[in-house]
Amino acid sequence: MRVVIADDQPIICRGFADLLSAQPDIEVAGTASDGVELMALVARENPDVALVDIRMPRMDGIEATARIAAASSTRVLILTTFDVDEYVFDALRAGASGFLLKDVTGERLVEAVRMVSEGSMLLGPTITRRLVEDFGSRRRPRHDPLVEGGLTAREREVLLLLGQGRSNAEIAATLVVSVETVKSHVAEVLRKLGLRDRVQVVVWCYENGLLQPGK
């Protein structure tokens, strides 16, 4: 997989690049020091994953994420030192596929890049807890979102399992179907609900009351 990295601190940027380049299945296609450079880099290299810091000059990581999500298939993994709720929600709304703090281990970071590249969602445990608590405090819609979404019975089952953070393999085992069949259902769920990826599925499930905190 091909990865680009954006961080305004050269030492951190180089450290991430060296760590990822050492993996046999990862190629670092370039680095950027701000959001403007990142946009040009993504347009030129069309990477699978962009590892993006939030606070950068000229264009911050949130704005860059929104533009990348709107214009390319590159998935964004936000990595920051700031464990602030506002950033989490802004990043998810912008289209980020993952959000980790910079105190993550090297092994976990490599795993996260691979997961996001494969289409999985990736949120740190404290971030997930805050996200769930936030949506748990909101009023629920009175309509039936599953009916309005036009999902089949099987697609509804897949949606709920996606909302619980299950992988394709776990969903396949639960429903006793092949992984390829699950991938097909996931694609239809995303298409019918107008969602970009699994992170947005989780957010959608909580916003529409299909999942409740603690369950």
Entry summary:
The chain has 215 residues and is α/β, with parallel strands linked by helices.
What does this entry look like structurally?
The model has no long low-confidence stretch (mean pLDDT 82). The protein folds into 2 domains: 125 residues, Response regulator (Rossmann fold); 70 residues, Arc Repressor Mutant, subunit A, CATH 1.10.10.10. It has 215 residues and is an alpha/beta fold. It is globular and about 50 Å long. It is built from 11 helices and 6 strands. Strand 4, helix 4 and strand 5 form a beta-alpha-beta unit. The longest helix is centred in the last third of the chain and has 15 residues. It has a 6-stranded parallel sheet with strand order 2-1-3-4-5-6, sandwiched between helices. One of its GO terms (molecular function) is DNA binding. It holds the Pfam family Response_reg. Keywords: DNA-binding, Phosphoprotein, Transcription, Transcription regulation.
